[in-house]
Amino acid sequence: MHTRNASSDEAADGIASWPEDIFSVLQRFDVRQVPYVPDAGHSQLIERVLGEPSMRAVPLTTEEEGIALLAGAWAGGQRGVLLMQSSGVGNCVNMFSLTQIFRFPFLTLVTMRGEWGEFNPWQVPMGSATAGVLELAGIKVLRASHGSEVREVVEAGAGQAYNACTPTAVLLSQRLIGAKVFTK
């Protein structure tokens, strides 16, 4: 049995175009480091980053490693973005303090679970709490729910993070990425 994402925001060929919009924004903001925990919602974006020589995709064993990696990347003169799923936000609570203490440009793109058509009850509690947890940690939260708004929302988040040095999270709704469904 396999899972796949069922989204209404897919192009005619079955491939969503919004990951390409995100990739373009990251290139425009000169993002070089992209730590991630493998995630189906970010898979197209991760593939684009892996194929781009100017970017370094860094697979993580746990999401909080990405916060420290982004702090180090900034100290070394590079911008980064952390890709994770909403369940990973709970793993990062302690490390979010680095974004306040060291005031480095922090941007994370969070694919949401536990909302639109969720089949897994374990995803619902953290999915429901994600925005609140981020806000309590001092991170500004923006949200994209439709493919047509992703570029604009990610651009606004990148601007806040990299220009105003405001820790920012962009939540990519489960409606956007598609609810996971079982297939045979």
What do these coordinates show?
With 184 residues, the protein is α/β, with parallel strands linked by helices. It has a single domain (19-172), classed as Thiamin diphosphate (ThDP)-binding fold, Pyr/PP domains (Rossmann fold, 3-Layer(aba) Sandwich), CATH 3.40.50. Helix content is 40%, strand content 22%. The strands form three sheets. The chain has a four-stranded parallel sheet, with helices on both faces. Strands 3-2-4 form a three-stranded parallel sheet, sandwiched between helices. Strands 1-9 form a two-stranded antiparallel ribbon. The longest helix is centred in the C-terminal third of the chain and has 17 residues, at 147-163. It starts with a strand and ends with a strand.
CATH architecture: 3-Layer(aba) Sandwich
CATH H-tier superfamily: Thiamin diphosphate (ThDP)-binding fold, Pyr/PP domains
SSE arrangement, N to C? EHEHEHEEHHEHEHEHE
Percent of residues in beta strands: 15-25%
Average per-residue pLDDT, rounded, comes to: 88
How many β-strand runs?
9
Lay out the secondary structure.
Blueprint: E1 2-6, H1 18-28, E2 31-36, H2 43-50, E3 56-59, H3 64-75, E4 79-80, E5 82-85, H4 86-89, H5 97-101, E6 107-111, H6 124-136, E7 140-144, H7 147-163, E8 168-172, H8 174-177, E9 179-183
Parallel strand pairs: 2-3, 2-4, 5-6, 6-8, 7-8
Antiparallel strand pairs: 1-9
Helix pairs in contact: 1-2, 1-7
